[in-house]
Amino acid sequence: MRTTAPVGERVREGQTLAVVSAATMLALMNYNATFSTLAAMARDLNARTAGQTWILGAISLGTAVLLLAVGGLADDHGRKRVFVAGAGTLAASSVVCALAPTTASFVAGRLLQGGATAALLAAGLGLIGHAFPPGPERARATGVWGAMLGLGIALGPEASAGLAELAGWRAWYVAAAVASVGLAATAGSVLRESRAAEQRSVDLPGILTLGPGVAALLGAITLGRGGWARAGVFTLGAVAVILLAAFVVAESRSREPLLDLRLLRRPDFAVATGGAFVTGVAVIGLMSYLPTIVGRVLGAPPLLAGAVLTLWSGVAFAVSLQVRRLRAEGRHLIAAGLALCALGDLGLIGLSAGWGWWRLVPGLVVSGAGSGLLNAALARMAVESVPPSRTAMGSGANNTARYIGASIGVAVVVALATSGPNLAHGTDVALAVCAALAFAGAPVALAARGRRLPGPAGEAPRACASSEGAVQER
What we know:
By secondary structure, this protein is mainly alpha-helical. 75% of the residues lie in helices and 2% in strands.
């Protein structure tokens, strides 16, 4: 590990972090843009209940389906190349959304935006993992990256609502297209290409089973929000089980798998992936629906209801930036983050029409602090728990678990919140279940003692090749 770096190298690292951070913030802002404008979009696009569900869920489907695949492609064929392609695709798909005349065309645009988001997140964190050596520098960089997740979540609904007030809900997608074009141009001129020194063949069996399998799973979850006994839910669920089982079989037999299942033997990788999944279910899933709950139970206007999400994610942003100062192992940070999120959920129990909005603040602050710890720790462990040549794949696996968990979490929270005698009572049940899941995840993370292994099944770490042709690994 180096102790100092030439000035030019430090500038290059700073540029990489700035571009990737900006992309992460834009991607998360866009991811949450529909939360505050759904009513106006539904009126304009004539979207009924099922259509509104797909408007909200399409981008998470596109993101989760492609994250792992694009992570592997980035490692093998160039992280910069995949990152720039993701920015270009986000620009084009934003234009599709801005011009969409129907619900179906808008959903198609959001699916494309999900694929673009996957490329930016997986390749972006892979670029950071390659640019920054293990130690304090990488801890700082991954902390910044994790903070951008929180900042994007905080700013997205507010920016979308503000532009909608000025020029209608389509204005956000015009702005996103313009910003994405600028991002692609900047990334093309600033980022340095990196890839694994040994290019692997494309794992077609893995891609053809994982992508459709995840799509079927999330499709079943999305349809299930309208009724779990529907025939389509069972059909898609069965398809998902078959395809995902086929993926496991294919990966166990492949010589160059999309996801080396032996990585799950690494405690750090298992904790990072499992922690991301629990975060998606118990934290992101809950917070995604909380503004709707606050609006309906407290009668809060959309701007105030959206401020709930802004407060939570704003605290997460601030905490993520400071995680690098904590001298603690990743599993300790993940356990602490889950415990804090659980305590924050418990602080929100009892929500009723008689509450003032200020009574939400303590629970949101505690939960936001936990989310900040999780965002930074999960990002660092995602790139440090895999061989150095597979950093984008590690990012893809981690974020795949997070977004699948988030889709499941939203479905579970909506089902629980709306199943009781009233929304307030159902919300208490949902909060208690999410708190219990987060609390359960904390000791599991602590019990998995991390240890450094040279690679899956004894494989030595592979070097990464820069675009200049030099082989380097930090």
